[in-house]
Design a protein that fits this description.
Elements (H helix, E strand, L loop, with lengths): L15 E8 L8 H20 L3 H19 L4 E7 L2 E4 L2 E4 L3 E9 L3 E8 L6 E5 L5 H8 L4 E2 L6 H8 L3
Parallel strand pairs: 5-8
Antiparallel strand pairs: 1-2, 2-3, 3-4, 5-6, 6-7
Keywords: Membrane, Transmembrane, Transmembrane helix
Protein name: DUF5673 domain-containing protein
């Protein structure tokens, strides 16, 4: 028989350099008027879709409006973040450095305090990590050992999210 030698799995020691906790996103308290506005716009769009006999559009608008209202009322959970020699961990998910192109620390307290990562992935291009109470210089120093620093501008979807107070 032709037996191939069994390769031993190499284990890489994971060294955690820095860790912190922060809310998963910045919560913006929305007024009752915000919820009314979303509801009225949703109903108007659904009625418009029904008038033009596009029931699928009406259904999709209704689901979207409902989702927007539910997400608008959601409070952020506290999440554990860490930077190790393998990558950046957010809760149970790890983003390996080999899948990340650049990072940028957007630090302008009290308005912004976050790490923006640019990924090699097709659909998840920007990953935003709140810095919480960690010193941004420490995070920057650790990240510079693994990925390149490059200014990353806010995406269009992030601008829309800010406008809608998400």
């Amino acid at each position: 028989m032709n037996e191939e030698p069994i390769k031993e799995r190499q284990t890489v020691k994971i060294e955690e350099f820095v860790s912190w906790q922060a809310p998963e996103f910045t919560f913006h308290k929305k007024s009752v008027d915000w919820f009314w506005a979303v509801g009225i716009i949703t109903v108007a769009l659904v009625v418009g879709a029904i008038l033009i006999k596009n029931f699928l559009l009406g259904f999709l608008v209704a689901i979207s409006g409902f989702s927007l209202l539910m997400h608008g009322a959601k409070r952020p959970n506290i999440v554990n973040f860490s930077i190790s020699n393998r990558g950046i961990q957010i809760g149970d998910k790890i983003y390996l450095f080999e899948n990340l192109k650049y990072f940028w620390i957007d630090y302008n307290p009290p308005y912004t305090s976050r790490i923006i990562l640019e990924s090699n992935k097709l659909f998840t291009t920007h990953i935003i990590i709140p810095l919480g109470d960690i010193d941004p210089d420490i995070a920057r120093e650790v990240l510079l050992h693994y990925i390149e620093e490059k200014r990353i501008e806010e995406s269009f979807s992030e601008t829309i999210s800010k406008f809608l107070k998400f």
